[in-house]
Amino acid sequence: MSMDIKVKMNELRSTERLVKSVIKSQPKVSEIEKEKVDNSESVIFDLSEEGRLMSENSMRQKKEAGKTSVREEWENNTAEIKRLVRTNSTGNINIMETFRLDEPETYAKHMEWYIKALELRDAGLDSEEKKRAYFEASMKESKIMDDWYYRRCLSTGRFKNPVNVQFTALNTLEAMYSDSNHEISFNYYGKFSDSRSSMWKFGSKFNVLLSADMFNNVKLIDNLDAASEKDKKKLYDMMGTIDRSVREMKQAEKEYEGNLEFLCFGVKLWDDGKVTYHANYKGCKNDDGIMADSAGELLEKLMSEQ
């Protein structure tokens, strides 16, 4: 079951000020200030237009160490992919994206029953017993989502996006870490692993994957004064880890030398504090790319793939 609800998203400026207030209070992430922008939508447009011109006027050549790669034509699809995934064709929010970020465990239960219903249907409903099992699974998956939707989105009788702050901050973070050469995409994973939680979902050069629980800490920004010192530290630590790992990922991309095609880089922040570094490219033996425990190790693995 999937629903799209029309709502107007808040402008980024208010949430961006809140994000900046967290950044300024944490020395570890001071370098983010160098990449600030006022509006993520405009930066996506500017990057796409500039990237189009760059890609049209350049020929593919071996990537040299010491400088970032020339923006390639395939990177220009990122903004459109995000629009299609995060909203529907008329710009409304995607309710499934809201669901999996708001309550990852509830979303996981819903998807488990949804997949079970599909498996039962595909196996054939050639008996009353199989039909009954399929009907029960379908009812359970629908009930779980309906309960979440009416409890979290329509509790006041009017639709309210329960993760509006997180979604706005998502756009702000992407705008902060993108530059004139390459975009960065943030995504989140939960208790259920599916295509929606893929690191490579948006086809951008750089990618960051956070747990849904971790990303939900962003909502603390909206009321830092009321947050406990423990919660503030948790948020500062997360922002510091993001900043450090993104810089290390981008440095690995600069140091890479070779001819791997459609080369993308990523970092994943795990709930236990671990950070892993990733890369994917055309012809990689593993569909999910390669993984390393450090940016240096990732670079070594990439160089060995030549």
Describe this structure in words.
Mean pLDDT is 81; it is low at 1-19 and 21-46. This protein is 48% helix and 10% strand. It is α/β, with parallel strands linked by helices and 306 residues long. It has 10 helices and 7 strands.
Q: Helix and strand layout, with pairings?
A:
Elements: E1 4-5, H1 12-24, H2 40-56, H3 78-86, E2 93-94, H4 95-102, H5 104-123, H6 128-153, H7 164-177, E3 184-189, E4 206-211, H8 212-215, H9 229-255, E5 264-269, E6 275-280, E7 290-292, H10 295-304
Parallel strand pairs: 3-4, 4-5
Antiparallel strand pairs: 1-2, 5-6, 6-7
Short description:
The protein is of the alpha/beta class and 306 residues long. The chain has helices spanning 12-24, 40-56, 78-86, 95-102, 104-123, 128-153, 164-177, 212-215, 229-255, 295-304; strands at 4-5, 93-94, 184-189, 206-211, 264-269, 275-280, 290-292.
